[in-house]
Every structure is written in C-alpha cells, then in structure tokens.
Amino acid sequence: MLAAFNRRLHVLLRELMLVLVHGVVRILKQGERRIFLERLLGNSHRVDQSSAYDAFDDFVASHGMTDAQREELLLRCFKGLSPSSIPQSVIDIFGSASGGNIYHSQEGEDILLERLFANKANGFFVDVGAHHATRFSNTFALYKKGWSGINIDATPGSMDSFMNYRPRDINLEIAISDKAGPLLLNVFKEGALNTFDSTLADSYKTGGWEKTDAIELHTCSLADVLDQHLTAGQSIDLLSVDVEGEDLGVLRSNNWDKYCPEVIIIEALDTPLHSLHTHPAITFLSERGFSPIARLFNSVILRRGGRTCAGS
C-alpha cells in the first residue's frame, strides 16, 4: 500500500512540474526562462521519474536561487495559470486519488448523462458549439469512457485542443445554421460566449464582457455535415447544441428523417421551468417526439420517446 502511494505521489509531483510549463515564469529573464522550460520538457517523460526532479533542482541550484526565490517562482507560475491550461493528466490523478469522478460540463450536464448512459461504453455524440476539448465540455467525460463523435465549433482555432485531447473524434471548424450565406460571428475574450446573435452579443458587452473581433463565416447545415462524416448505420446517442442563441437554427438544419438522436441538450436562456413548453427550440423538438427530462440553470436535456424524429 505504501509503495503504491509513493508511486502515485511521484507521478503527481512530475505532473506538477509539467504544470510549470504552462505557467508564466516571470521571475526568470527571457533566456533563462527558455532554458528552464526546455530542461523541464526534456525530462518530463523519462521512465525514471526522479530524473525530472533532479534536472529541475540542478538547474535552480546552478542559478543560485534561494529557497525564497524557488517559492516565488512557483507562486508566479501558478498565479499565471488558467483552469484550461492545467494538464488533463493532473486532473485525472486528483480524480483517481479522491476515489471520485472528474466532470467537465458547465452545469453538471455530464453527471446526468453518465446516469442516462450508465450501461453504454462506446456511444456516439455530435457536439455543436463544442468550444473546447475539456473546458465546459458536455462530451469529454463520455469520451474518456470510450465514446467518440463529431465536435463542431465555428470559432477559428477552436479545434486545436480537440486535436490534442480528442484524437478519436472528428473535429470540424464549421458554422452550422439553417440560414444560407455568411453570418457574422461575434468573438469575445471569453470564447464560450462567441455568438452569431447580435442581440445576445450586445447584452454580453453591456454585462462587461470584452468583445475582441467580428468574423464573417460561411455556414453549413447539420444534415450536410452528417451526410459527409457519419458512417453508414451509425446512430447518434447524444446531440449537444450550445451555440449562444442560435440553437433553433442548428436544429432546423438537421435531417430528422435520417438523423434521430436518443438524447439532446440545448440551451434555454431566460426561460423559467414552468414556461419551457413555450421555448421555440423545445417546441420544435416536442413535435419530433422529445420531452424534457432535466432542467439545469441554462441547459435542458430532452429524451426521445417512442415516436420517430420526423417532423409532425
């Protein structure tokens, strides 16, 4: 038991050293910082875990850093971290050590999905407005369970994290809509707020969120994407749609005769629980045999009943 604990501790320490790579090491000059990071990267994946620690200590010692300076170095590194920059391996280690599970969605959607799909080890999802491979993701917990799917987001560069963390998936930078022609994407410093809805974008700016750009993008229907990338006979267990005010346009662009998910997640902003039936996207889905089974702060989870998805 003690040996197993020590092995886990060594792995954790190694990963904490890796966190430094993602931090902002401002206490060192630029040249020294580069050497420091290169030394960490060069030793971080050695079979002998202690080599990485020795390299770190040797480098710090060679530059005559005091204990106080080492502490300052660590503080500055961790202060510069954002949650999305912490390596997934570190998060997984803490989750394993705690005996619990690590979830990633913004409002606990993936906790509910785990219960809904408890006995399904290799399902398939389509995630429209996927944003990031792990941060606020409704599908990453399923991916770690063995699922795979199609991730779609309109924001340029959004698929970079998916290429790193989700190699089994199909990852597409495409704007999905039922509207033909180009649409203007309002880009915010907080990428989860990026939206084609100008009214919603204005409300975000009024609320203090910083808008950084506006990009004109050509659109594609969800049906066309699925026609191109879905293999014959592949069913869709989960459709997650989070496109900041344009969920209905995404839903309308699907071919419901061909592609009929089992469970759907959408956003229903500013819609009280007792008024869900009046929300346009929920009305649209109700006509196709879906019923709400869970309401979170912004999200609604719907499940298909016995009827087919074809429009009524």
Radius of gyration: 23 Å
The secondary structure category is alpha/beta
Strand order in the sheet with the most strands = 3-2-1-8-9-11-10
Q: What is the element string, with H for helices and E for strands?
A: HHHHHHEHEHEEEHEEHEHEHEE
Global mean pLDDT: 79
Number of strand segments: 11
Choose one word for the global shape: globular
Q: So what's the CATH class of the largest domain?
A: Alpha Beta
Helix share bin: 25-40%
State the CATH architecture of the largest domain. 3-Layer(aba) Sandwich
Distance between the ends? 61 Å
Poorly predicted runs of 5 or more residues: 21-25, 43-49
Largest sheet entry? 7 strands, mixed
Amount of beta strand: 15-25%
CATH topology of the largest domain, by name, is Rossmann fold
Number of helices: 12
Q: How many independent structural domains?
A: 2
Characterise this structure:
- The structure is a single chain.
- The protein has 312 residues and is an alpha/beta fold.
- It has two domains: 2-98, no CATH class; 109-304, Rossmann fold (3-Layer(aba) Sandwich), CATH 3.40.50.
- The protein is built from twelve helices and eleven strands.
- It has helices at 2-22, 30-43, 49-62, 67-79, 88-98, 109-116, 140-145, 160-165, 198-206, 222-229, 247-252, 280-286, and strands at 124-128, 148-152, 170-172, 175-176, 183-188, 211-217, 219-220, 238-241, 263-267, 290-295, 299-304.
- The strands form three sheets. A seven-stranded mixed beta sheet has the order 3-2-1-8-9-11-10. A two-stranded parallel sheet has the order 4-7. Strands 5-6 form a two-stranded antiparallel sheet.
- Helix 1 (2-22) packs antiparallel against helix 5 (88-98) and helix 2 (30-43) packs antiparallel against helix 3 (49-62).
- It is globular.
- The N and C termini lie far apart (61 Å).
- The model is unreliable at 21-25 and 43-49 (pLDDT under 50).
